Amino acid sequence: MRMRAEPTTPGSTGSPWAIVAAVFAGCWTVAVTVLAQTGGWAVEQVVLIGGLDRLVPLWPVVCVLTVLLIAAATLPLALIPRSATVRVTGRLWFAGALVLGVLGLLRTIPPVHHEAYLAALALVAMLLAVVTTRLPAHVLGPGRPPETSQPEYAPESPDGPGAVTAEPVGGPGAADLAGRPARLDARPSVAALLAVAAGLALLLPWVWLGALGGLLETILAGLGAAAVGVLAAALLDARFWARFEAGEPPRPAGLVLVGGLVAGVALLLVGAGTGHSGAHLPLLVTLPPTGFALAALRAVTRHPAGAGGRAPTAWLVGLGVFGPLAFTDPEEVSLLLVGTRDVPFWVAAATGAALAVGLVLAVGYALLLARPSARAPGRALAGASALTLLVTVGLVGGAAGQPGLYGERLFVLLREQADLSGVSGGPGRAGRDARAGEVYRRLVDTADRTQADLRRDLRRARLPHTPYYLVNAIEVDGGPAVRAWLSRRPEVARVLVNQRLRPLPAPADSASATGDAPPPSGPPWHITMIGADRVWSELDVTGAGVTVGSSDSGVDGGHPTLAGGFRGGDDSWFDPWNGTGTPADRSGHGTHTVGSAVGRGGIGVAPGAQWVGCVNLDRNLGNPAAYLDCLQFMLAPFPPGGDPFRQGRPARAPEILTNSWGCPPIEGCDPRALRPATAALEAAGILVVAAAGNTGPFCGSVQDPPAPYADVLTVGAVDDRRRVTAFSSRGPTISGATKPDLMAPGAEIVSAMPGGGYAVLDGTSMATPQVAGVVALMWSANPELIGDLDRTRRILAETADPVETDGPSRDQTDDCGGPPNIAGAGLVNAYEAVSAARG
After folding, report:
1. In order along the chain (839 residues), what is the average pLDDT of each group of 10 residues?
2. In angstroms, rounded to a whole number, what is the distance separating the alpha carbons of residues 167 and 171?
3. What stretches pass through the bilayer (predicted)?
4. Which residues fall within 8 angstroms of residue 216, CB to CB, at 6 or more apart?
5. Which of 92, 365, 625, 822 is 20 to 30 A distant from 535 in Cα terms?
């Protein structure tokens, strides 16, 4: 005897085993998605911090694995159970996984080309929406439910609030549940207006705590968010919601709880694929709760089966996506800025606030709209709610937010760079000053002559710009269109994207006022290891008469160990970031490095030397122009508000520059970006000392300018046992040159911190100023050496001590082409170097 299958109603869930399988599949889908997306971002950050090349295949691999793992759990749901509701759930989640996979592939576009990514996102999301809407009814859902499950329906009454709104979206010929022709109405439905209000509420934290990028970037983010909203609406259409409107009359609680939960998982998948790496993380948290709000809105206007009703979903999801997509820069959602109240902190705060808003909306809409006895608000009330939220968003953005556009700038390098051949001067300080003056004159003349036409055209186009001469370059405000125009000009060599950090709602945390280390009672171990204390006591040399320039996060000029060494005058401090008039430091990094170079009280190598300072890295992410601001100031200091082209004073240039920074691709530099700058400083007789980087133990990790340049004295780090530290970057450079040049102590180095305290830090940043201090001692002992860079380098190399290159943390089978690419000439020896300089 043949058994007849038991018919299923739209709300039936089938056997308990089907329910258990659906619950398992949902939990599995959420776990896989969250772990894969956060894990992919974490791997990308580790690669970034490690100084490795960007892993282009990372996100394709993550996306394919995610789709396969989710499909393993959702495809059986979509194909096997007799329950129509479970089948719809499985098909929706599988479709969501495919959407994640396709959109996630767009992350192969480099983050620096964010506009291109947003344009691709808008295009692909809209194509997916079109494909989804054209799929046969049985693909994403079993089709029109039986007539026995008609939901409550009442035509809208134009006479007052309280009537249930039927949104006729099926086009001409659409009919209501009673078979009557649906009245066309171009006005927004109650559900759509309530969705707009909810979306604006989700947007509010981002408007308050975030900041927009450039104009084109913002427009494309809006288009991308709208496309994602339309795609979500295509997935969560009437065919989906009809399966959860169980019973006669329907039970709104089941629609909200079950349908909202299923929709939330689908929105998690859509959010996981939306946004570049980093910007997508907030959507994993903020989008899922909107599934419950959408279910409650569905209870307001229960459309006939098969009708569209997609406007509420498109509005709510689109506005929810627009916040993190437009008000965050994915390059700034980075571990490089973690540890202070910088962009990642405020993104997390906005995410938490948006999550709270989403939960309130889910509960509030469910209680107000989805109770059996609930009556929908009238269109006037819904419209007033949306208008009130819109005005609130505008007021918050204009008053408490960061109004304005903060897109990336462009760094335009010109083809012709100054000819500095034949620059000469006599020995000592007078010869150095003559060389610096001649270099300054040639650089300015070349920039004025070759930039004239470009500057004129930029003024005509009303594009703000800043010219530079140390590198013949101009920084320009503009996006991809301006970049394309500039790239075609005959005088332009290339155009780089000049990373600009977006503003914060409150200043980032300052460095500790006290530090976490006690003040040293005598010379620390690193001072005695290199013999600097013997130079003071036995040779009576402390660095007097020499000035060291620091380009870093700043300097606490009031610190007891540094206050007496500040050179003073109106041309010894420059802060292009914050415009401070006196030396200050919000990070602590610059104070620590200057303390190691010239600090008094035993912590600095050359306590008798003076220092000048410039802020080039206020928030741990810089750009080529910011680095050039300070290098240019060091060649020819100028007074506050002065014109670097006309008021530079090359005779006031410091003799030695300590640079504990590098400019990686994420900040906009390419390998040649700052090459003319260091060449000009070399020609001027100014010694540039730079950190090798902290991306060891990988070979070839001396990559970020200026460390790889031949005319830079590049410094690696050793520990207290004279072993090369694991973090110290290795050579050879990309050109095959041997780097680093020299080593100095860089592990557990105690030095000054803002507020009068001290701290122990690690890094080649800590080693670099010690070498600068040793050179200050050499030149103080023999002023005839000032500006003689070749002889100075030769003495340093010849007097260096051997170090151990086969540390326990390094693969001893990989020698990076020989010990010089690991340790250079060896550990700097201050006593021997100063003795040789005197001799």
Report:
1. 41 65 93 96 90 88 96 90 84 96 96 93 97 76 43 38 38 37 54 94 97 95 97 90 67 78 96 95 96 87 48 95 96 87 94 96 86 74 94 95 93 97 89 96 98 97 97 95 95 94 85 70 94 97 98 96 96 94 93 97 96 92 94 97 96 98 91 96 97 93 95 97 95 94 97 94 97 98 96 97 71 74 97 95
2. 11
3. 16-38, 58-80, 92-110, 116-135, 190-208, 220-242, 254-273, 279-297, 309-327, 347-368, 380-400
4. 115, 407, 479, 480, 481
5. 822
Contact 836, 791 (CB under 8 A): no
- Degrees, nearest 5: CA angle 236-237-239: 110
Task: Find the length of the chain.
Answer: 839
Residue 304: CA count within 13 A, CB half-sphere:
17
Task: Using DSSP bridges, classify how beta strands 687-691 and 713-718 pair: parallel, antiparallel or unpaired.
Answer: parallel
Q: For residues 578 and 576, what is the distance between their CA atoms, to the nearest angstrom?
A: 6
**What whole-number distance in Å separates Cα of residue 297 and Cα of residue 368?**
10
Sequence-ordered alpha helix ranges (H) in 503-554: 525-529, 532-538
CA distances from 473 to 470, 500, 800 (A): 8, 17, 38
State the sign of the Cα–Cα–Cα–Cα dihedral 175, 179, 185, 187.
negative
Task: Return the domain boundaries, the chain.
Answer: 16-142+187-399, 525-838
Tell me 188's DSSP state.
Answer: P
The span from the CA of 715 to the CA of 675, in Å, is 18
- What DSSP string describes 342-389? SHHHHHHHHHHHHHHHHHHHHHHHHHHHSSTT--PPPHHHHHHHHHHH
Give the HSE-up count for residue 274: Cα atoms under 13 Å, Cβ half-sphere: 38
DSSP 811-824: -TT--TTSTHHHHT
In whole angstroms, give the CA distance from residue 751 to residue 256.
60
Tokens of 177: 């549940």
324: its two tokens: 């993190």
Q: Which residues of 720-743 are buried (b: 16+ CB within 10 A; e: fewer)?
A: eebbbbebbbbbbbeeeebbbbbb
The CA-CA-CA angle for residues 637, 541, 518, to 5°, reads 80
Closest to 246 measured CA to CA, from 299, 291, 293, 289: 299
* Fold that domain 525-838 belongs to in CATH: Rossmann fold (3.40.50)
Q: What is the CA radius of gyration of the chain?
A: 32
Q: What's this model's pTM, rounded to 2 decimal places?
A: 0.87
Task: Return the closest-CA partner of residue 780 out of 424, 428, 425.
Answer: 428
- The answer to whether residues 800 and 825 touch, using CB atoms and an 8 Å cutoff, is yes
Instruction: For residues 482 and 486, give the distance between their C-alpha atoms in angstroms, rounded to a whole number.
Output: 6
Element (H, E) at 204: helix 190-209
- The answer to whether residues 389 and 445 touch, using CB atoms and an 8 Å cutoff, is no
